[in-house]
Amino acid sequence: PGAHPLLVEALPQEAAREAIRLARRLGLPLEGYTADGGFFIEGDSPLLKAHQELLGVVAEEADLLRLPAPLVRLQVLAEAQAPLGALMDPLPQELQAHVAESPRMPGVRFVSLTKRGVSKLSAARFVAESYGLTLAQCAMVGDGENDLELIQGVGLGIAMGNASPQVKKVAQRVVAPVEACGLAEALASLLPAIREARRGHNA
Description:
phosphatase activity; HAD-like_sf; 6-stranded mixed sheet; HAD family hydrolase; Hypothetical Protein, Haloacid Dehalogenase-like Hydrolase, Chain: A, domain 2; globular; 3-stranded parallel sheet; hydrolase
């Protein structure tokens, strides 16, 4: 059986429509994601094609204003030097933007639009609480500026070696870059604490 989302926060419909029209006016490549796993794109920008190759998933071309399922996230892809004020300043108040970069697509910024209040931090808090944990009892491994609030919000924030200086500055630990198995290093460093927690739980 396929996986089912535990919590869905759809974009407010009219705010999503306004953001889609704004991205179209600005000629920005646009992706749309639905709660049922749908991945849709508008346009034939090389950035959209490169992102699909990075993800290993083929998106479906569609009119994002006419999708049958509600959108949970919109994402604009932009060259790093492109000014984002024309997109960010007029965004509807019901939406919030998270800007990130990927070491596997250098020179590109990903502007993710979610319902206001929905972020990696809110999702992590929901998951932690479902396991009876607080964020102080959790760790986070990240490399993008959209990871900042969560790295600061958990008990142990870990930055990848390829992370931006700002992310490394707030992290309590820095591991090797992605291509040098930094994630494996981060997970291995957590094993002693996990074993200790299990011993305490079983005592």
